């Protein structure tokens, strides 16, 4: 595994930026190893919901995990507000960086993460293929 460290500046939309990075670097399979930073807006889809819930204000990234590649991603985020209340779920478009987002990715050799529709779940699910 090789590691890649990224710093995303203020105003960057977190999810599209990570996908764009994977596309531009032709990354076939990666996982989030570490993430810290802050958001000014958050769009998080909670379990069992179809649409994202939105929050504004000073939010700290307390966790970011998941898989990603140039073919798509499945990322979960947890953020804390100024009172320490935590919300988490699926990372959606609309999570804009407030001051910084420091992300470390683990790029996995020899495998490809793709996403295909799964008739059982109704979602695009991870398919792991050897390169």
TrEMBL record:
Check the record and name the CDD domains matching this protein: DUF296 (cd11378)
Q: Which Pfam families match?
A: PCC (PF03479)
Residues of the PPC domain: 1-129
Q: Which organism is it from?
A: Noviherbaspirillum pedocola
Q: Which InterPro entries match?
A: PPC_dom
Superkingdom is Bacteria
- Name-wise, this protein is DUF296 domain-containing protein
């Amino acid at each position: 595994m090789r590691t890649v460290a990224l710093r995303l500046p203020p105003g960057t939309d977190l999810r599209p930026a990570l996908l764009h990075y994977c596309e531009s670097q032709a990354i076939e399979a990666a996982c989030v190893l570490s993430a810290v930073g802050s958001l000014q807006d958050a769009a998080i889809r909670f379990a069992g919901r179809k649409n994202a819930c939105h929050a504004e204000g000073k939010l700290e990234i307390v966790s970011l995990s998941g898989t990603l590649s140039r073919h798509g991603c499945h990322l979960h985020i947890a953020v804390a507000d100024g009172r320490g209340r935590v919300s988490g779920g699926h990372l959606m478009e609309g999570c804009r960086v407030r001051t910084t987002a420091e992300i470390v990715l683990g790029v996995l050799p020899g495998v490809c993460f793709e996403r295909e529709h799964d008739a059982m779940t109704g979602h695009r699910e991870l398919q792991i293929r050897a390169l």
